[in-house]
Write a structure and sequence with these properties.
Blueprint: E1 2-14, H1 15-24, H2 28-32, H3 35-41, H4 46-67, E2 81-84, E3 90-94, E4 100-107, E5 111-122
Antiparallel strand pairs: 1-5, 2-3, 4-5
Helix pairs in contact: 1-4
C-alpha cells in the first residue's frame, strides 16, 4: 500500500485573540470543542489552558484547510476531534476524512502554530 498527500493545512493563531473570544462569548468553548476536548481542557489552568484552547481552534482550522473546505457549512468544529495522547501528542480521533490525518502544534507565549497533513491510499497507477 502506498500513501499519497491528500492535503496540507497550516494555521497561526494569536492566543490573546482566542482568550478574548472565549471571554466575550460564553458558548465559544462548547462551539469549538467536543465534549471529550472540553474534558481535556478542564485538566489545565493558566497559560496551558489558553494554549490548549487556542491549539484546538488552530488545529481545526488547519484540518479544514487541508481538507479543502475551511470551517463552515461542510465541516464544523464539532466534526473534528483532536485529543492529546498520554505524552501530549495531538491525535485526530474524529473527522470527515477517510485516510490518515496527522497533526502538529507548537506554542510561544503569544502564538500557536499548527499543521495538519492528510494522506490517502493510492494505487500504483496514481
Amino acid at each position: 500500500m502506498k500513501m499519497m498527500l491528500a492535503g496540507l493545512g497550516i494555521d497561526l493563531t494569536e492566543i490573546d485573540r482566542i482568550k478574548k473570544a472565549a471571554s466575550k462569548q460564553p458558548q465559544f468553548i462548547k462551539h469549538v470543542l467536543t465534549q471529550n476536548e472540553q474534558e481535556q481542557l478542564a485538566q489545565f489552568a493558566g497559560q496551558r489552558y489558553w494554549e490548549y484552547l487556542s491549539g484546538r481552534w488552530s488545529l481545526k482550522e488547519s484540518f479544514s484547510k487541508a481538507y479543502g473546505t475551511g470551517i463552515g457549512s461542510q465541516v464544523s468544529f464539532q466534526d473534528i476531534e483532536i485529543l492529546d495522547n498520554q505524552v501530549g501528542r495531538p491525535i485526530i480521533t474524529k473527522s470527515p476524512f477517510q485516510g490518515v490525518a496527522l497533526a502538529s502544534v507548537s506554542h510561544t507565549g503569544t502564538l500557536v502554530m499548527t499543521e495538519v497533513v492528510l494522506e490517502k491510499e493510492t494505487t500504483d497507477d496514481e
